[in-house]
Amino acid sequence: MRAELIERGVRNPDVQLVGLTRADLDGDGTQEVIVEETHYGERFGVFPPPIGQPGDYSIVLLRHVVRGHSLTLTLGADIALQAPLKPDDTFKTRPLANVIQLAGVAGLSGDGHMELVLFGAYYEGSSYTVQEWTPARGLTDPPLETGCGV
Questions:
Q1: Cα(22)–Cα(30) distance, rounded to whole angstroms?
Q2: CB of 84 closer than 8 Å to CB of 137
Q3: What is the DSSP letter of 14?
Q4: Which one of 25, 123, 128, 146 is most buried, counting C-beta atoms within 10 A?
Q5: Residues 83-141: pLDDT tens digits?
Q6: Comparing 71 with 142, which gets the higher pLDDT?
Q7: Is 112 left (phi over 0), alpha (psi -120 to 50) or beta?
Q8: Domain range annotation of the chain
Q9: Torsion angle (degrees, nearest 10) of CA 7, 71, 96, 9
Q10: What is the Cα 30 distance to its own chain's centre?
Q11: Which 3 state secondary structure label does DSSP give 87?
Q12: C-beta separation of 100 from 114 below 8 A
């Protein structure tokens, strides 16, 4: 995970694994792995601070094997790469910080494939999205989304 974060621009990542889930998402008998990592210097329960500081991140990755090679797909990511130029420029250089987490894996559609339920939160709101992943189609657009916030 350290290498993944460095590749995404986090210079010296504070790697904090918050979840590791194995599930056969496509019904082929092979388990995929969902990795969740989140680091925010300040945090309020499940909510991140309003603005992430350099090096803060929340990322959810799906790892699967194709012909003996491990591939990684991003399910969701929020990475703070730079500090504001001046205190007044906070929102110009860094938008709201978001936490992304796996809320669950379940067969919701009845088609034999498992769906991924992702939870997202920022300091004034939260949301859930449902997505399906298969090796052939990749990650589908969310057929279901809900949320509330300011």
A1: 10
A2: no
A3: -
A4: 25
A5: 544 556 555 556 688 999 999 999 888 887 889 999 999 988 999 999 988 888 888 87
A6: 71
A7: left
A8: 2-149
A9: 0
A10: 22
A11: helix
A12: no
First to last CA, the chain: 33
Distance CA 141, CA 12 (A): 33
CA 45 from centroid of its chain's CA atoms: 17
According to the model, what pLDDT value does residue 95 have? 66
Distance CA(73)–CA(18), nearest Å, equals 18
Q: What pTM was estimated for this model as a whole?
A: 0.85
Q: Compute the distance between CA of residue 20 and CA of residue 13 in angstroms, rounded to an integer.
A: 18
- Determine contact, residues 19/34, Cβ cutoff 8 Å: yes
**Longest Cα pair distance anywhere in the chain, in angstroms?**
53
Is residue 134 a contact partner of residue 113, using CB atoms and an 8 Å limit? yes
Cα–Cα distance measured from residue 21 to residue 148, given in angstroms and rounded to the nearest whole number: 27
Distance CA 112, CA 134 (A): 11
| Residue 79 Cα distances to 22, 52, 82, 99, 100, angstroms | 24, 8, 9, 10, 11
Say how far apart CA 57 and CA 52 lie, in whole Å: 8
